């Protein structure tokens, strides 16, 4: 029983620390909430718009990739420690596991989990752009309204 005394002491200290932290925050925290205190803070930038209500699906697909590879690492480390004792059975079971993990990775990539750029449009006629599109019709000149055109812009 004496060998568990340090574990018990650590548990008691953890419980006391949690209780004291809660009490200190209740006693020392400011009570008057203002809109500035309740506003989200991100790098000192005041948000100009409300965040979207839902995350894009790609966010969850990337999270799935991380989870899949975390699980793979969790299983590979103990296997690497005892792989000589497992023999051929351990080798084949880990190869099957690695193949299944790779298949799930291929599934996520096929669903566009790693395509973070803008959506690509398929251009008809082997990628040739139509004659109706010019730099005047497709490029928006920003900040030039009401200004005299210079040689660089006019060219």
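Q: What amino acid sequence fits the structure above?
A:
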């Amino acid at each position: 029983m004496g060998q568990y005394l340090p574990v018990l002491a650590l548990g008691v200290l953890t419980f006391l620390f949690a209780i004291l932290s809660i009490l200190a925050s209740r006693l020392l925290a400011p009570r008057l909430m203002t809109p500035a205190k309740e506003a989200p803070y991100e790098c000192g930038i005041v948000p100009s718009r409300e965040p979207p209500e839902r995350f894009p699906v790609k966010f969850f697909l990337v999270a799935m990739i991380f989870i899949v590879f975390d699980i793979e690492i969790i299983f590979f480390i103990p296997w690497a420690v005892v792989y000589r004792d497992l023999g051929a059975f351990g080798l084949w079971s880990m190869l099957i596991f690695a193949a299944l993990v790779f298949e799930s990775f291929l599934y996520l990539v096929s669903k566009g989990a790693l395509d973070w750029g803008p959506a690509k449009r398929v251009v008809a006629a082997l990628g040739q752009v139509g004659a109706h599109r010019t730099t005047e019709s497709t490029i928006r000149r920003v900040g030039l309204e009401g200004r005299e055109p210079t040689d660089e812009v006019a060219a």
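Q: And what stands out in the fold?
A: Confidence is low (pLDDT under 50) at residues 122-126.
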